[in-house]
Design brief:
Order of helices and strands of chain A: HEHEEHEEHEHEEEEEHH
Structural class of chain B: alpha+beta
Largest interface: A-B, 89 and 92 residues
Distance between the termini of chain A: 84 Å
Distance between the termini of chain B: 77 Å
Largest sheet of chain A: 9 strands, mixed
Structural class of chain A: alpha/beta
Oligomer: heterodimer
Number of strands of chain B: 17
Helix content of chain A: 25-40%
Radius of gyration of chain A: 22 Å
Largest sheet of chain B: 6 strands, antiparallel, barrel
Shape of chain A: globular
Helix content of chain B: 25-40%
Radius of gyration of chain B: 38 Å
Strand order of the largest sheet of chain B: 12-13-14-15-16-17
Strand content of chain A: 25-35%
Order of helices and strands of chain B: EEEHEHEHHHHEHEEHEHEEHHEEEEEE
Chain lengths: 239, 449
């Protein structure tokens, strides 16, 4: 009897407050990330449309979200990336998502709201801003109005429908070593991703390659000294 | 009706503009546009104006076609009459008895016509076009049309439509508060935008003109990122403009003029493009952000500078470019991967719906300004490697480090010499640290994420 009453109550709540339905009930569509291992642990096979998802910064979050944006573009939909802190390095930016570099935190949030309400973007990613409290509520409403999925890199996810975090253990980096055994280049890294929603708790492990660029323009660590600069004392001592 | 004038003083043609709306000077004759004007009154006023000077004269020819009006003015001059009026519908009959020379035929054609016994315009007009074209060529065919009073010359071009504007002035009171001004501007903007909608155009720029109580005017140009007739978009821009304006006195009148318009039409889309349906809304949203925040929608232009932070120039793009890149990028990717099942849709190879998997890669995130840190070092193979650093908030132990990667240059302008280290800290973050060799200071430049 109690089970029947509970089911009836749940149906009534779903009917009267459809937007409050937990994501795992699969009442909303998902925006697939294009990463099979991650999509498998997301409640709807992707980031929920019309809902706010939050991802705790660092731990490979940017890499995964950039891949998700490119996957969205590959499906002929639109994605936008709001780089609130201006940390995106130009050489690694692959065209596709609309890149916005706002001048301040408030501008970043306003831009996110406008893009979400337009309904023209399948996925909007907000980084470097870390929205909190009422800001998250406002972004949730905008996402609901436009039907877009939004992922904000923030540890503040009280009102989010989906919470994600990722971490990298220091010993999970795979180094390519030089001829003397010293570390030369990071080849790949294992990222542990945790996905939480109401009634949903999943984990997965992703192995991501690490991109690198050649900065070496001098073959000797003492080259700078040859150009008229003083040698550090430590180097003089060790030499 | 076309009115053709021949004046003793061609300079007095300027005065005709006080009577008729448009005047065109063509060599020794003047064309006046009298369409829609009362015939007798206009002729009388024109005659009065151009013969004000003692001893001056004028000849007028008026007809429904330019060629007949042109011939009529010469007839008037020849007969020393003031006016030769060709009634409506009689242009061809007027030309028929006149010699073919009144049409100024080409010398060769004139010879051919003379040889064929064609002497008057009527003789030429009664021939068939085919026979004229075969015997006298294209120039003969053109002359044949003129002889039939068929003259398609556009003497007066189309009248450019005035750009929409709205204004209001008041004398009983003055306005000082921005909210009240905005209330009035909103009404004016509504009228302007309604007119723009009716014309199927959007405004690219408008000018807000404020009449002040001290009898001066203040003009402020407002420009949108794209052509739009959206009242909300323009009110947003005008509100921003009002916030920036400092007026010297109270306002007694407001005028809003459109100064530049553009087409509102959208581009043709691809039926397989899922984003096409929302392209307009997307463009509007990006234009909104551009209007609000300036050039914040960007794309990188990378050089080969040794320093990453000096390698990239962020180039602003406009709303249509941002939306257009959506398809351009897909086409570019399709050209790189011709067998891609989704992207080949755009190139017409295969129709499929599943997306190709994307490989996420940890890439460098650069701090806009390198963060000064305190570093403890340990010697390793003749080089001091960072062992621990403090970034102002907390201290991190470095588990492993690789480097140094040396970059130095620009000795004559802004010299730099940096020794970069890639380090894994105790939180598992791969950070990018460098020592400025010139100052021996340590900086955190970025991290991989």
């Amino acid at each position: 009897m109690a089970v029947a009453a509970l089911r009836e109550l749940r149906e009534k709540l779903d009917r009267h407050f459809p937007d409050a339905t937990p994501v795992p009930r699969r009442t909303t569509d998902g925006v697939a990330t294009g990463i099979a291992a991650l999509d498998a642990v997301l409640p709807n096979g992707g980031f929920p449309k019309g809902r706010l998802s939050v991802w705790t910064p660092n731990g490979g979050a940017t890499a995964v979200l950039r891949a998700a944006c490119l996957s969205v573009i590959g499906r002929q939909e639109r994605a936008a990336w709001i780089d609130g802190q201006g940390t995106m390095a130009g050489p690694w930016w692959e065209g596709g998502p609309v890149l916005i570099r706002p001048r301040s935190r408030v501008h970043a949030l306003r831009a996110a709201e406008v893009l979400l309400r337009s309904g023209g973007f399948a996925l909007v990613v907000v980084t470097g801003v870390e929205p909190e409290g009422t800001e998250n509520v406002r972004l949730s409403r905008a996402a609901h109005d436009g039907g877009s999925a939004i992922v904000a890199l923030t540890p503040n996810g009280a009102t989010a429908a989906l919470k994600m975090s990722s971490s990298i253990a220091p010993d999970e980096y795979v180094w390519l070593r030089g001829p003397f055994g010293e570390p030369a280049t990071v080849d790949s890294v294992a990222v542990h991703v945790r996905v939480n929603a109401l009634g949903w708790n999943r984990r997965t492990r992703l192995v991501l390659p690490v991109s690198w660029h050649v900065v070496r323009s001098a073959m000797s660590p003492l080259l700078a000294d040859r150009r008229g600069m003083t040698r550090p004392a430590a180097l003089r001592m060790s030499a | 009706m076309f009115l053709c004038l021949q004046l003793s003083e061609p300079a007095s043609a300027v005065r005709c503009l006080t009577v008729v709306p448009r005047v065109v000077a063509d060599h020794d004759i003047i064309w006046c546009d009298v369409r829609g004007l009362p015939f007798e009154t206009t002729i009388g006023r024109l005659q009065t104006i151009v013969t004000e000077q003692p001893g001056s004269w004028c000849a007028m020819g008026i007809a429904a076609t330019p060629v007949a009006a042109h011939v009529a003015v010469r007839q008037a001059r020849h007969r020393q009459q003031t006016l030769v009026h060709v009634p409506d519908g009689t242009d061809r009959a007027f030309l028929a008895p006149l010699p073919i020379d009144v049409l100024y035929p080409d010398f060769k054609v004139a010879n051919l016509l003379d040889g064929a016994g064609v002497e008057t315009c009527g003789d030429l007009a009664q021939l068939t076009r085919e026979s004229v074209e075969i015997r006298f060529g294209a120039a003969g065919a053109r002359l044949w049309r003129l002889a039939r009073a068929d003259d398609p010359r556009p003497i007066f071009g189309s009248v450019p439509r005035a750009l929409p504007s709205a204004s209001i002035e008041w004398t009983d009171y003055t306005l000082r508060r921005a909210e009240r001004l905005l209330f009035v501007i909103n009404a004016l903007c509504g009228n302007v935008c309604t007119t723009l909608h009716a014309r199927g155009e959007g405004a690219v720029s408008m000018t807000l003109r404020l009449s002040l109580a001290n009898r001066t005017t203040f003009e402020y140009p407002v420009r949108a990122a794209r052509a739009t007739a959206n009242q909300n978009a323009w009110i947003r821009l005008l509100r921003l403009a009002l916030e920036r304006i400092i007026l010297t006195d109270a306002v007694t009148g407001i005028a809003l003029h459109v100064t530049l318009t553009g087409a509102l039409g959208g581009t043709q889309g691809d039926v397989f493009d899922r984003g096409f349906g929302t392209a307009h809304a997307t463009e509007e949203a990006i234009a909104h952000i551009l209007d609000d925040q300036g050039a914040v929608v960007v794309e990188p232009e990378n050089s080969s500078h040794p320093l990453l932070d000096r390698r990239t120039t962020w180039r602003p793009i406009d709303a249509s470019q941002a939306v257009g890149r959506h398809t351009e990028q897909q086409l570019a990717r399709a050209s790189r991967r011709p067998n891609d099942p989704v992207l080949s849709v755009l190139t017409g190879n295969v129709i499929a719906t599943s997306a190709s998997p994307t490989v996420p890669t940890l890439t460098l995130q650069l701090l806009p300004t390198p963060l000064r840190i305190t570093v403890s070092t340990r010697p390793h193979r003749d080089v001091e490697h960072p062992a621990m650093y403090r970034d102002g908030k907390q201290t991190h132990t470095i588990i492993e480090s690789a480097g140094p990667d040396l970059a130095s240059g620009e000795r004559w302008s802004a010299p730099y010499a940096r020794a970069y280290f890639r380090c894994i800290n105790d939180e598992g973050t791969l950070v990018w640290i460098y020592r400025d060799v010139r100052t021996n200071a340590w900086y955190l430049h970025g991290w991989w994420d």
